[in-house]
Structure prediction request, 220 residues.
Amino acid sequence: MDGESQPPTFKKATVNSMMQTHFTDKKTKANQVSVKLMTELLREFATEGAVRSGIQAKREGLDMITIEHFEKILPQLLLDF
Amino acid sequence: MDGHDVQGRLRVSCLSQRLKAAFHYTVGKICEKFAEENDVTFTRKLLPLFSEAVCQQAQSFAVDLELFANHAKRTTINADDVKLLVRKNPDLLDRINGLCDAETATNEMLRENKKSKQRKTKKPSAPTAISDESNNADS
Prediction:
């Protein structure tokens, strides 16, 4: 699709089936609005992770983001979501 | 019977593998975009780790949402459950609220257009501007 104008995001169908596989009750469903909001939430989580890893790498004066940078920001990232 | 169970389990694991692959792809895209914009590079080994973290987070979200819906004696998850999920992060809550309002507004507009369309079919003298608007909203 057009990757230029819109930021890359998850497909709604993917998010929906991902949630569906983790529901304990098979009768549980998610309506359209909630799936859209969840998609946005997960995109925000991924973006935030990338940005914070980048900031951590910059703070250490590096251009290469490594696993250690991600490990350092992960606890606060998980607390914020 | 045993064979059927194994097949079912295989199908489930295959599905979750594909879902993880889809998540991996999108997380990769997001990282790529960030790397391009900020002139940094990600270690190749970081990507699988990162997408796994996103998957785990999605799983925890799904479990919470189901519990919230069950607590409200519903079987369908709606926008209120998602709002409850992000209640501890005010900025995120604002964003989700804004998105939710926009979504309900567009839904209502679509419904209004549908109604006016129905009215139009009954009364052919209705103005044509409404149908143009509804066509734009649909696309």
